[in-house]
Amino acid sequence: MSTPSAVPHIVILGGGFGGLWATRALRSAPVRITLVDRTNHHLFQPLLYQVATAGLSGPDIAAPLRHILRRQRNVTVRMDEARGIDLRQRRVALAGGTLDYDYLLVATGSSHAYFGHDDWARHAPGMKTMDDALAIRRRILSAFEAAEREPDPARRAAWLSFVVIGAGPTGVELAGTLAEIAHHTLRDEFREADPRTAQIHLVEAGPRVLAAMPPTLSAEAQRRLERMGVRVHLGAAVTGVDEAGVQVDAQRIEARTVLWAAGVAASSLGAQLGAPCDRAGRVLVEPDLSLPGHPEVFVAGDLAHVEQDGRLVPGQAPAAKQMGLHVAGAIGDRLAGRTTRAFRYRDYGSLASIGRGAAVVDVRGMRLSGLFAWWFWLVAHIFFLIGFRNRLVVMLDWAWSYCTWQRNARIIVGKGNDDDDDA
Amino acid sequence: MSTPSAVPHIVILGGGFGGLWATRALRSAPVRITLVDRTNHHLFQPLLYQVATAGLSGPDIAAPLRHILRRQRNVTVRMDEARGIDLRQRRVALAGGTLDYDYLLVATGSSHAYFGHDDWARHAPGMKTMDDALAIRRRILSAFEAAEREPDPARRAAWLSFVVIGAGPTGVELAGTLAEIAHHTLRDEFREADPRTAQIHLVEAGPRVLAAMPPTLSAEAQRRLERMGVRVHLGAAVTGVDEAGVQVDAQRIEARTVLWAAGVAASSLGAQLGAPCDRAGRVLVEPDLSLPGHPEVFVAGDLAHVEQDGRLVPGQAPAAKQMGLHVAGAIGDRLAGRTTRAFRYRDYGSLASIGRGAAVVDVRGMRLSGLFAWWFWLVAHIFFLIGFRNRLVVMLDWAWSYCTWQRNARIIVGKGNDDDDDA
Lengths: 423, 423
Prior knowledge:
Shape of chain A: globular
Oligomer: homodimer
Largest interface: A-B, 52 and 52 residues
Structural class of chain A: alpha/beta
Number of strands of chain A: 27
Number of helices of chain A: 10
Distance between the termini of chain A: 48 Å
Helix content of chain A: 25-40%
């Protein structure tokens, strides 16, 4: 597949924040880039929960990679899946061919980890890709429909019970939005089942929600979630998940809809790089993000294990972007014969939305909660969305939702192999 | 499932234009209505081709039935699938239970017919539901991606060949939009394959495109399609469809993407009603749209065979709405002990979009083509879209597309069992 060429060939696996930011930073470099992604789009993952909860359409938060990069003439975008990496031959095996590289960036991210209970996956889906989000949307909306059809009160209650496992930002956002949907959005639309009786459980093994935030903001987030009707279970270990519910320590929660926002496992490509990995499968990289013993191979984003000041750099969009930019710089250094510099993560803080008019923000020592924090969250997310048109549509959708309590994408599509569908 | 009640129970099968319009027209009637649909949404089918060609998001042209009907207190919406009708017991068997009725409206529409070649279905999908449209979108976008990966020129050309079978409004709209996508939207985005070399074939067995239109407009539509680069094959019988192409009379067209816009078969529920059906499975109804021998059962929309002035009333949205309204009136007449009136179709004309700035319109003797017709088409479709928010978003999307030649929903989702995916 690869044609001989005077300029070095850089293969970038993954069109997420790490891979895309590296690609764009190399726009003026005298290189030839091939960007490979399994999907045809860059996904704005921070808003994926809004697609899963029917607030936004999929295309609102995704843009075709080749459209984003259409003017960058040194890039070829290839929709394909990396299957293996041959470090000695400097060759990547794809589902549809092979690619030889001079430099390689592996930025294939992460998926869900079920801590050795892979059988939980079909009952408690996680949310990393657009397809994941659409499957979760189908489950949530279908559960209310099943409740309306179900004459037996106990079984109806189980259809109106939702368990979110893991109280990081994604879990908090899912639980808060589910409460909003059940208690407001769907209020007048059912005749047999009453969505206002829905139970939303947020289950966390640790001692507080949003563990990465300062304790005061965790407490504030929990208070707001509880005021919205979410039942927060802390220090609660999930010991079983099946199609009818969840076992949390000694307590059994009967629930037909269980969502997984707990564990993360790095992409399996990491294990093929031959370097030591941490327990989640992240690759222990050199300070410049290169692979030990392979200065021509880099790892960025969720797949890289980087510690700084004794703490793991978080698997979030800003860190992935910074790593992508750093790798682009390091490749430039290598091409120019300079020594590379160590990656340095700049922590701008973190923020999480809880629900309508409520968020928590911890940015550069500034700690906010409530309505102002929510506005901050809103502006930040719209600002970072790629593409002018998406920003405008998302703003419009949100303004409309805010005024009407409605959600714009309440459409069940796909049949899926969800176990719920058998019921 | 059914509880005894003093007011008559009306069961309406299908939440399309026929069923929804009947339901809404009965809002003040002293009845209890159960509206059953397999999906959770009413679909604005006239714009479905825009979802299939990535111009609009699915939720832009669909609205949850229970949201539309939330204020109509005499309606229960049930997402379920009708499996059988017992006319003697006046009972409908659903996948998830049974419903007893006093009056029944069957408005379950139609799907694709392959004229006895059901094996063609997997190679040449048709477009009736949202899932159909998303599957077609996936095929179209994936074909360009496969062309970019394919080094062999002949095989690449087959990935860049598209055949649309049937030149009614849907076929014309699909072919015109495909030409626009290949020759404009994707122009600068590929490095190996050139979308501008894509071949779009429109194959029609009859002597002209848009056979329901006056011959002058058919000729005009064909002229515009050809100017856009569509190859129009008239009087051309399809004798074979496989995964690599189409046999049209003696000519073989190598094409990996084939779309079916030709035959229509009425919903299989029609055959269960015991009345004579036409060749497409449409039920031959009484002049008041009731079932022969069963004044309590009605048929509306695509499933009803109604002739007027020697011509079949077309299977289009306006006819289905009129039938739905008529059935609501007929049920009111029955309840009041009045005799029902005969249905009378009012033909307001028809219109079809061909592509950017081009449409043909035949409304009340007014025949238009070109830019003004296109504006007329645009305004008419936005006007008839349900829901203020959808209208606004669709207008915004269209304005943006018009200025940029871009399409807003170029996201490949779902894995699907498309045969193309095996390649």
